[in-house]
């Protein structure tokens, strides 16, 4: 290419005249501003900034100018193109935002429409109650012990100081199985798990055993042939009734609320001596015993379960040396606890399988 | 035990002003829990007074009845002192009689309010009462006419009628049979109630010495009957009525008055705790003999039941044969009747274990049996018999025969060594040895020694045999309410076991999947198994039979949870809940027929072998899971059509549970009841079958009230939990690009998709990342008896980008193997 020919007669290139370039620029900017949507802007871009747009054509003419004119024209066209591109970018962003807003507005739904398409599941409240109780004791360092519901007579009775002719055997109306000489029963209490625990672990023993038990009670609002108990057993050195009281007070306050304590009344269980009935302070009237309190029927206390110091005879039958160790045991109805904790007067819904009942308790209580 | 309070207070004094509630509160805290306080007059309020009939004018009515228009002097009770005008329908009284009058404002049992009202042309201001109107029994033949010395007109009549008599009902635990008597309760009042004194033991009395003139008795089994006392009352008037106080007390105690002779024996039993039997002496032939029954002997007891006796039963015989089941129930032939004039009184002490066994064997429960089998004071037979004689003489006009037969003597009660500090050690309370001794003496023990106490329990406490038993007596008198509350410190625990955690996880998983947990009784009947359509040789028909089921139609322990969940689902549908998904976890009982679970000794620990044998003798009791779903899995709505449950939901429920345990299960076709034979999957893990899932057979659906196409599954959770993956290895991911290939294969309709997939997997080799069956097509385009399975395959290498053609080559290898194994043909 030859060098600039300053002597060359300048050629007038019309498109590069200042007023022409300004006009192109103004026309482009006006078209950009007027583009109503992205589609229109696309056409505007082609028309005013595309390869065949006036300004692009003008740009190509710059080379034809004499050197001294080139600089000025180049600057002028460059500025115009910059302004057009800037305007395009800005307009593009504005229109995109507008477009998005319009689309979102068009996509508006009625959020009050029902959303439940699948059934909600739920766990049985007694399962959850059992777990809740187990967790309270696990938090104290206890472990959860288990045993079979179809149980050896010896473990359900004899090992627990309920000999074959013990009058207390009639306290617990037992389901027996055939053949009778097999000596197999449906456990009437979770206590055989105590015996199993002592037979398979060495002290110190701190266990809690929730489980199903069976008695030949006719099924009605307050009796069921199958129900759930939770039993606790501690065997350690120096264990006394005071430890039993402390444990049950703690249990009661955890399950029924701060300040809810227990009361002991003398009772009789062959596997404990001394034995006590344990009442829990009514958590509704808080022990006031007002006549209007449905939960405790105005007594201020609710019968909760039985407990006592493990009878040394039971320790012996289960291989624990009563000279070294002593223990306590307690047992209460999970169903019963659930009933007064949740204000259920008739226990039958617990065993009828109506999903409306269990569903009401969700998956944790 | 129901105890009329006045009877108790005949034998012990409490400080003036002590309320009934104060007494029962104390008894409750020392171990006799109050059940109820009853009083016949509790429901009666307002003026109830003695009235003297002044005039009585019979007035026949149009309806045929005659009423009496009476004026009654009620003193100042009506506020005016003027006679009260009252219409009375009864006729069994005359002017001058004292009657029971309720005045306007009074309320009788049943909320019956008394006012002044116009009737039969008179203003009747009050009512003259019958026994029934006062809640005092069923007697409505006429009004009550009081004895002439009952009191003055206007005086409150409650005391005269015993309406203010309170009866306390106490719960008596089986170890404390002594409290099944007024004597025992009075003693408890003495030791429990502050300031109680003056215990007057009804069983302590001067009794005539034994002699040879009494009715001859021969006790052949002194172990079964250590003491037998016989007394006779002659010249007894069988028509003599039972005195009112006795009727009231017996009735209040919950027994039925029968005749004077019978009532007296019951009265003395209630008073002393010692059951008494009365014979019509004229019907007794020769000496009474106590022995065990012989094989095949029978007796008709006085409840009219003919009983075949057991050689272990204790019987009383005379020359005619057996006349009574000793200590349990008398026989018909010597029963006291309305012609009995000579009463032979038996007060005998019987072996408690024998009483318990005979009672169970013959299913006899009686007030006498209840006491005899729990243990009665053996030292009071003579006193009790003497008290009976006294009352029969006093109220029946009889004469005490001078003969007194006493055979045997009460067994000696051994003394027990009790450490002086035991009560403190057991209770955690600072109970001194002196305090222990004081308490033990209070309950009737003889105590000597120190450090180690030598304690002889009183004869009415056969339950006190071990040192620990005595500590309970001390602690209950010191007060259970004084036991401090101390939380022990267990060693660090290990938390829930793995299976315990996993069981919770399974429940939460299913709840998350939309299933609701139910709890059913584990009882089942053969009809339930028939309803499931189980074949005769199905192992689930091997059931553990209950000896005493509540319902004979569900007389076994179930081997499957399905009947329970199917029934529950059917019930929900019946209640109008048509979309139901439920689950249950519980043990089933699978008999092992492994022989008896031995009754082991209790004076030592069983050996490991003995304990293991005990467990081995029990049925297997694996934990099962059952699910049932019916109706829609996804309901229809603005989003689209409903999706009804299908067999696949049942399989998926099991897969979800398995996945929660880190397991993958395999499904294969099976034909097992109660499932649809073509829609039942056998589920296995690592080649071990864990259960079945699928669509329930339409006949079974119908049997349980479920619509067709309901689905169910049952699996053994113990097996799944045992196989659960404990420690999962962390995965690594490839970050190189994925290559996707789709294939559609046509196979015979009978070829399981799982087989095709397995072949594809194996053929595709290591580059295969995942495979997904995204479409199953049957129809004209693939031809009769064929199906097209469309799979999406994803390939990726762990360490590089796959080269061109590598994925396609792997896909071709996969298809080739599927073709070889399953006859699959790739669709064009």
Automatic annotation (TrEMBL), chain A:
In terms of CDD domains, this protein maps to: PheRS_alpha_core (cd00496)
Q: Which cofactor does it need?
A: Mg(2+)
Which positions bind Mg(2+)? 273
| Main localisation | cytoplasm
> Where does this one sit in the cell?
Cytoplasm
Residue ranges of domain Aminoacyl-transfer RNA synthetases class-II family profile in the record = 135-349
Q: Which UniProt keywords apply?
A: Aminoacyl-tRNA synthetase, ATP-binding, Cytoplasm, Ligase, Magnesium, Metal-binding, Nucleotide-binding, Protein biosynthesis
The EC number(s) this enzyme carries: 6.1.1.20
Give the cofactor binding note: Binds 2 magnesium ions per tetramer.
Q: Which reaction does it catalyse?
A: tRNA(Phe) + L-phenylalanine + ATP = L-phenylalanyl-tRNA(Phe) + AMP + diphosphate + H(+)
Q: Name any one GO molecular function.
A: ligase activity
Describe its assembly: Tetramer of two alpha and two beta subunits.
Q: Which family does it belong to?
A: Belongs to the class-II aminoacyl-tRNA synthetase family. Phe-tRNA synthetase alpha subunit type 1 subfamily.
The record's annotation in PANTHER family points to: PHENYLALANINE--TRNA LIGASE, MITOCHONDRIAL, PHENYLALANYL-TRNA SYNTHETASE
Protein name (database record): Phenylalanine--tRNA ligase alpha subunit
What organism, scientifically named, is this protein from? Nocardioides flavus (ex Wang et al. 2016)
Report the gene name. Answer: pheS
UniProtKB/TrEMBL annotation, chain B:
Which SUPFAM superfamilies does this chain map to? Anticodon-binding domain of PheRS, Class II aaRS and biotin synthetases, Nucleic acid-binding proteins, PheT/TilS domain, Putative DNA-binding domain
Entries under InterPro entries matching the protein? aa-tRNA-synth_II/BPL/LPL, B3/B4_tRNA-bd, DNA-bd_dom_put_sf, Fdx_antiC-bd, Fdx_antiC-bd_sf, NA-bd_OB-fold, Phe-tRNA-ligase_IIc_bsu, Phe-tRNA-ligase_IIc_bsu_bact
Top-level taxon of origin: Bacteria
Compartment(s) where it occurs, according to its Swiss-Prot or TrEMBL record: Cytoplasm
Sequence similarity = Belongs to the phenylalanyl-tRNA synthetase beta subunit family. Type 1 subfamily.
| NCBIfam families per record | pheT_bact
What's the protein here called? Phenylalanine--tRNA ligase beta subunit
Q: What is the lineage of its organism?
A: Bacteria, Bacillati, Actinomycetota, Actinomycetes, Propionibacteriales
Designated gene of the protein: pheT
């Amino acid at each position: 290419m030859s060098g600039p020919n300053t002597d060359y007669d300048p050629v007038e290139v019309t498109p590069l005249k200042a007023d022409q370039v300004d006009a192109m620029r103004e026309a482009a900017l006006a078209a950009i501003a007027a583009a109503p949507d992205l589609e229109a802007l696309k056409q505007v871009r082609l028309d005013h900034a595309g390869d065949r747009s006036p300004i692009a054509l003008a740009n190509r003419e710059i080379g034809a100018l004499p050197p001294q004119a080139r600089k000025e024209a180049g600057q002028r066209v460059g500025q115009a193109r910059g302004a057009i591109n800037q305007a395009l970018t800005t307009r593009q962003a504005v229109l995109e935002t507008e477009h998005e807003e319009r689309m979102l507005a068009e996509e508006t739904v009625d959020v009050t429409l029902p959303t439940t398409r699948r059934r909600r599941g739920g766990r049985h409240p007694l399962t959850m109650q059992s777990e809740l109780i187990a967790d309270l004791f696990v938090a104290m360092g206890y472990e959860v012990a288990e045993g079979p519901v179809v149980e050896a007579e010896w473990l359900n009775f004899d090992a627990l100081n309920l000999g074959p002719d013990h009058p207390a055997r009639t306290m617990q109306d037992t389901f027996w199985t055939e053949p009778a000489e097999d000596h197999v029963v449906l456990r009437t209490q979770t206590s055989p798990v105590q015996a199993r625990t002592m037979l398979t672990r060495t002290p110190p023993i701190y266990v809690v055993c929730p489980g199903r038990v069976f008695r030949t009670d006719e099924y009605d609002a307050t009796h069921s042939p199958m129900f759930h108990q939770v039993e606790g057993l501690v065997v350690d050195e120096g264990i006394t009734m005071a430890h039993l009281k402390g444990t049950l007070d703690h249990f009661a306050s955890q399950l029924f609320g701060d300040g809810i304590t227990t009361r002991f009344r003398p009772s009789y269980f062959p596997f404990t001596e001394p034995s006590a009935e344990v009442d829990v302070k009514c958590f509704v009237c808080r022990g006031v015993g007002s006549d209007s309190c449905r939960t405790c029927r105005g007594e201020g206390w609710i019968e909760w379960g039985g407990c006592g110091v493990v009878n040394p005879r039971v320790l012996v039958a289960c291989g624990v040396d009563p000279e070294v160790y002593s223990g306590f045991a307690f047992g209460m109805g999970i169903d019963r606890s659930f009933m007064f904790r949740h204000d259920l007067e008739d226990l039958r819904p617990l065993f009828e399988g109506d999903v409306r009942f269990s569903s009401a308790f969700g998956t944790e209580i | 035990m129901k105890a009329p309070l006045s009877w108790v207070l005949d034998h012990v004094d409490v400080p003036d002003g002590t309320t009934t509630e104060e007494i029962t509160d104390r008894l409750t805290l020392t171990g006799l829990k109050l059940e109820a306080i009853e009083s016949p007059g509790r429901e009666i309020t307002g003026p109830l007074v003695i009235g003297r009939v002044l005039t009585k004018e019979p007035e026949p009515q149009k309806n045929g009845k005659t009423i009496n228009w009476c004026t009654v002097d009620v003193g100042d009770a009506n506020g005016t002192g003027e006679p009260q005008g009252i219409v009375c329908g009864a006729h069994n009284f005359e002017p001058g009689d004292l009657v029971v009058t309720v005045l306007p404002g009074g309320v009788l049992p049943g909320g019956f309010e008394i006012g002044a009202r116009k009737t039969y042309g008179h203003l009747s201001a009050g009512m003259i009462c019958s026994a029934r109107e006062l809640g005092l029994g069923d007697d409505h033949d006429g009004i009550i006419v009081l004895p002439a010395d009952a009191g003055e007109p206007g005086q409150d009549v409650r005391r005269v009628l015993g309406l203010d008599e309170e009866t306390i009902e106490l719960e008596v635990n089986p170890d404390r049979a002594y409290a099944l008597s007024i004597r025992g309760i009075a003693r408890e009042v003495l030791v429990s109630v502050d300031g109680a004194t003056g215990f007057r033991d009804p069983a302590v009395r001067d009794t005539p010495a034994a002699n040879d003139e009494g009715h001859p008795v021969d006790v052949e089994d002194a172990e079964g009957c250590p003491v037998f006392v016989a007394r006779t009352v002659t010249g007894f008037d069988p028509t003599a009525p039972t005195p009112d106080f006795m009727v009231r007390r017996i009735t209040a105690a919950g027994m039925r008055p029968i005749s004077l002779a019978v009532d007296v024996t019951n009265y003395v039993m209630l008073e002393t705790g010692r059951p008494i039997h009365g014979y019509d002496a004229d019907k007794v032939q020769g000496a009474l003999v106590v022995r065990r029954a012989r094989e095949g002997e029978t007796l008709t007891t006085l409840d009219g039941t003919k009983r075949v006796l057991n050689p272990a039963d204790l019987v009383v015989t005379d020359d005619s044969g057996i006349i009574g089941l000793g200590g349990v129930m008398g026989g018909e032939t010597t029963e006291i009747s309305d012609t009995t004039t000579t009463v032979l009184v038996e007060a005998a002490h019987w072996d408690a274990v024998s009483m318990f066994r005979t009672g169970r064997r013959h299913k006899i429960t009686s007030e006498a049996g209840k006491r005899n089998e729990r243990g009665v004071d053996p030292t009071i037979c003579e006193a009790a018999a003497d008290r009976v004689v006294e009352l029969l003489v006093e109220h029946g006009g009889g004469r005490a025969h001078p003969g007194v037969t006493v055979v045997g003597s009460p067994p000696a009660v051994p003394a027990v060594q009790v450490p002086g500090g035991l009560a403190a050690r057991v209770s955690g309370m600072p109970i001194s040895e002196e305090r222990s001794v004081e308490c033990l003496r209070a309950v009737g023990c003889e105590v000597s020694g120190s450090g180690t106490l030598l304690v002889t329990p009183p004869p009415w406490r056969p339950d006190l045999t071990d040192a620990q038993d005595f500590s309970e007596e001390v602690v209950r008198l010191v007060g259970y309410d004084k036991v401090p509350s101390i939380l022990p410190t267990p060693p660090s625990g290990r938390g829930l076991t793995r299976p315990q955690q996993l069981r919770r996880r399974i429940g939460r998983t299913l709840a998350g999947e939309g299933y609701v947990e139910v709890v059913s009784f584990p009882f089942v009947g053969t009809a339930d198994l028939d309803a499931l359509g189980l074949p005769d040789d199905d192992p689930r028909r091997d059931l553990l039979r209950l000896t005493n089921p509540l319902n004979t139609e569900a007389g076994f322990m179930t081997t499957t949870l399905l009947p329970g969940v199917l029934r529950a689902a059917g019930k929900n549908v019946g209640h109008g809940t048509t979309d139901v998904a439920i689950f249950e976890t519980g043990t089933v009982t699978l008999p092992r027929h492994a022989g008896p679970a031995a009754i082991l000794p209790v004076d030592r620990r069983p050996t490991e072998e003995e304990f293991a044998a005990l467990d081995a003798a029990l049925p297997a009791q694996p934990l099962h899971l059952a699910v049932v779903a019916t109706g829609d899995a996804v309901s229809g709505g603005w989003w689209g059509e409903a999706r009804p449950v299908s067999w696949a939901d049942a399989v998926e429920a099991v897969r979800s549970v398995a996945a929660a345990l880190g397991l993958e299960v395999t499904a294969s076709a099976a034909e097992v009841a109660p499932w649809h034979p073509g829609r039942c999957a056998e589920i296995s893990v690592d080649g071990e079958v864990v259960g079945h899932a699928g669509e329930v057979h339409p006949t079974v659906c119908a049997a349980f009230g479920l619509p067709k196409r309901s689905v169910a599954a049952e699996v053994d959770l113990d097996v799944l939990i045992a196989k659960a993956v404990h420690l999962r290895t962390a995965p690594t991911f490839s970050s190189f690009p994925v290559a996707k290939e789709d294939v559609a294969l046509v196979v015979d309709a009978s070829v399981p998709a799982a087989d095709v997939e397995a072949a594809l997997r194996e053929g595709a080799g290591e580059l295969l990342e995942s495979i997904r069956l995204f479409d199953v097509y049957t129809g004209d385009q693939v031809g009769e008896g064929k199906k097209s399975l469309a799979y999406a395959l994803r390939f990726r290498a762990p360490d590089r980008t796959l080269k061109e053609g590598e994925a396609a080559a792997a896909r071709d290898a996969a298809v080739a193997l599927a073709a070889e194994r399953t006859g699959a043909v790739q669709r064009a």
